[in-house]
Amino acid sequence: MFKKKLLQRKLLSVSLAALFAVGIGAPSLAHANTKEAVASSGTTVYLTVEKSVLGQGLIQAPVKVTIPDSVQNPTIYDALKTQFGESQDGMKHAMTQYGPYVSAFADKNETLYDTAQYQHKDKLPNVCWSTNKNQEVKTNATDKFLSEKEYNGVAGWVTTLNDSKDVTIASTVKDGDVIRCQFSLAAGCDLGYSGWIPQGEELTEYGYYNWGPSSSFLNTKADKSELIRKMANEGQSATNYDKLMNALNDLEIEQEVVDGLL
């Protein structure tokens, strides 16, 4: 299983065509900042859910989420449950021996993605794009969820905390932390992180991928934590909100460009 293999090897929460260089259109936002914290007690964190790797913008715009103070030692998982609920109508999750992980987010504006546009397709072996007995590939864009293994066998959700991928959603959070859930078609390598991807076309005797380490597919990656805080705090009233949104969606923007918008 994709999730179990990655969690077992890296203890990471890896569960969202890279953007074209010509620019980014205004994304549709399925969830507004409806749960922004206002003078409430508890632990307040910042959260986004992004599918920029598909060129489709965000599912959840930057938002402040306050985990109730009744929750002791709050985690990323608690923040996600606070924002999306526990009914699995907004977020689907599952459990492994290593803890919970996100398997899907509701995507009311889900649009079938043409994988021929994926600019990193040649960096993944062909076996990732086909179905075998243990690595199911899903291509159904009518269920209104963006799920792990959708489009290829290594696709899923990558969760980061303050720009670090070395976490699981059972990791604890504190006031001001930034949680990003980003869809990836390459275990995070197409988001600017190193990761684990299948090595070659051969499967193991049990029908699983031969996982191995890989460097990032991108030449640069910016830390957007401060940008996300600014967007959540100021909302669309920010004078440069469109530029901030474009910067958030640009996977290869330079750090100095991001910093210049703050």
TrEMBL record:
<protein>
    <recommendedName>
        <fullName>DUF4430 domain-containing protein</fullName>
    </recommendedName>
</protein>
<feature type="signal peptide">
    <location>
        <begin position="1"/>
        <end position="32"/>
    </location>
</feature>
<keyword id="KW-0732">Signal</keyword>
